[in-house]
Task: inverse folding
């Protein structure tokens, strides 16, 4: 009997030849990542010292910290938190990545996208690194375990495999594919499992799009998402350098799955998540024409080159409707620079978009905050009430092309006529 | 050490699947940090009398995938302040599960619970037998087994005491 990629990675990090579903193991993460956030990193640093009498975390070379929320800060207490993070990183000799972009993306750019690796974070959207053939799990506050002991307790999860067949129609993107998976299979089909993706449609997809799908996996109930490495993944990993020398691993053809599901994306139409939660998925055309005031292209799950290209294609030679606020925030500085080289930024600016350097803050209403009665269309992670401001504002989640088309028309719009 | 059995009444049933726990205190109150204040506003939208009628040791009952969305900590903080001893649900959403288990708060996955219990029924959570018993009808349902780590975290009262004891055990076994 064969093994899934997840089982192979977990076997290695717990020092066994093989593990099986349900085994409770002590796993040594190859990497431990956190962004600074009140009640998380500051608490971890404090608990390490006060509760566990530790001056430094075990094997600190595995750790990395990111400053991507509250960037730029708009209150002294936010900068205080960043100061705590900076001084702790300096004291520990731990890598700190600041203002380079959203950490989950930056991680992939600076050598942490290592096929076969096991990475933990407290934030669940780290699952997007699964797009690089690695297992990345968000543990919430349980990540404290990794700050105080070298190995963390973990139960080997089941895996559900989704095979994506067919070809994605023009104007549709990874976001629609994720919405399709969620709509077809429901918000708990992958509960406590790993979502593994493969198939011809997936092979055709860029890494950007795969990151979108993997990064949203938590809304299927999944602990993480993963893709066995193909040539695209290996090329990326080689080009960005690799912070661990690991042999890539792949799922065996006879691996055992909780379920294997086939989905065909050929006749996919644009899908939108309406309020009040991310699994409230329906055809975008069911809500087309609805007046919208704010648009957001960005976040850890979008805002990459594919998203910026799609937005520019829609906006080229057109203009954002008067009074509409379109915020476009590239996910990382590297992406922003590349978008500039491609001439995308100028096209977006000329179309009337508000562009800003990378930050997580737009996604959770920390900046560009909506007031009661406003409605947004967004490529962000989440649409629960209050996520982007007032609890009485609304968020619709869609692909970047749909956000751009909506910005032009001022009403929720189908992106396909623009392609 | 074993988990203490729990016995209490069903103080409320959230039957809907994918229930967003933030609704318990209301989104507009989610940033309140004072627990007493949270407890005062909790359940306003469901039963304004809740704080008056709930008793220490009572349970909440939930449907499938309880805690879906982007669960915050204040709702269950408020519930604990009001005496709620745990949540029994058809199933739990993983994010909510990890967050609350790390607080040492008993979560009991029990498929079939919605059909078993009505509001104010008395239930016994028998961890050792892995069963939930309806005290009046004597009907029983199986609890889905918890991982050892999750069980111990509830026993110990949360993540920090759990880690302290796990580290001490490790030191003991390598001595």
Result:
């Amino acid at each position: 009997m064969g093994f899934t990629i997840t089982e192979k990675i977990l076997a290695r990090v717990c020092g066994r030849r093989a593990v099986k579903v349900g085994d409770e193991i002590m796993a040594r993460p190859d990497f431990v990542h956190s962004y600074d956030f009140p009640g998380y990193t500051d608490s971890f640093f404090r608990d390490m010292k006060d509760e566990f009498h530790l001056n430094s975390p075990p094997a600190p070379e595995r750790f990395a910290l990111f400053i991507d929320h509250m960037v730029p800060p708009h209150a002294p207490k936010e900068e205080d938190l960043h100061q705590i993070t900076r001084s702790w990183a300096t004291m520990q000799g731990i890598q700190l990545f600041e203002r380079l972009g959203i950490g989950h993306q930056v991680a992939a750019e600076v050598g942490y996208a290592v096929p076969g690796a096991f990475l933990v974070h407290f934030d669940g959207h780290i699952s997007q690194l699964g797009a690089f053939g690695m297992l990345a799990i968000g543990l919430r506050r349980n990540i404290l375990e990794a700050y105080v002991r070298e190995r963390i307790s973990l139960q080997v999860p089941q895996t559900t495999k989704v095979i994506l067949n067919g070809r994605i129609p023009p104007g549709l993107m990874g976001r629609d594919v994720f919405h399709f998976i969620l709509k077809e299979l429901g918000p708990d089909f992958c509960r406590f499992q790993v979502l593994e993706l493969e198939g011809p449609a997936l092979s055709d997809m860029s890494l950007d799009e795969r990151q979108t799908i993997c990064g949203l996996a938590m809304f299927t109930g999944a602990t993480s998402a993963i893709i066995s490495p193909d040539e695209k993944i290996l090329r990326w990993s080689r080009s960005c350098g690799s912070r661990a020398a690991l042999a890539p691993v792949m799922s065996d053809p006879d691996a055992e799955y909780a379920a294997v599901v086939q989905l065909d994306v050929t006749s996919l139409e644009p899908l939108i998540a309406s309020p009040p939660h991310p699994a409230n998925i329906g055809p975008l055309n069911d809500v087309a024409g609805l007046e919208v005031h704010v648009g957001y292209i960005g976040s850890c799950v979008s805002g990459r080159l594919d998203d910026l290209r799609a937005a520019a294609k829609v906006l080229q030679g057109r203009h954002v409707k008067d009074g509409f606020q379109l915020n476009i925030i590239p996910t990382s500085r590297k992406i922003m620079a590349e978008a500039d080289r491609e001439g995308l930024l100028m096209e977006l600016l000329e179309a009337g978009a508000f562009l800003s350097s990378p930050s997580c803050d737009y996604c959770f209403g920390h900046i560009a905050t909506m007031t009661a009665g406003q409605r947004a269309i967004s490529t962000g992670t989440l649409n629960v009430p209050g996520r982007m401001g007032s609890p009485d504002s609304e968020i619709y989640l869609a692909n970047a092309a749909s956000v751009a088309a909506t910005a032009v028309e001022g009403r929720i719009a189908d992106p396909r006529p623009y392609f | 050490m074993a988990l203490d059995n729990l016995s209490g009444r069903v103080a409320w049933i959230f039957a809907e699947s994918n229930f967003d726990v933030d609704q318990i205190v209301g989104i507009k109150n989610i940033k309140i940090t004072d627990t007493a204040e949270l407890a005062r506003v909790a359940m306003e939208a469901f039963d304004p009398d809740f704080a008056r009628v709930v008793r220490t040791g009572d349970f909440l009952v939930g449907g499938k995938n309880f805690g879906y969305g982007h669960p915050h900590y204040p709702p269950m903080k408020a519930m604990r302040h009001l005496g709620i001893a745990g949540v029994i649900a058809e199933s739990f959403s993983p994010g909510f599960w990890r967050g609350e288990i790390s607080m040492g708060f008993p979560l009991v996955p029990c498929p079939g619970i919605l059909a078993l219990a009505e509001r104010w029924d008395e239930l016994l959570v028998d961890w050792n037998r892995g069963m939930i018993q309806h005290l009046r009808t004597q009907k029983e349902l199986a609890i889905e087994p918890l991982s050892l780590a999750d069980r111990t975290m509830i026993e110990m009262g949360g993540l920090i005491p759990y880690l302290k004891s796990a580290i001490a055990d490790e030191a003991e076994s390598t001595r």
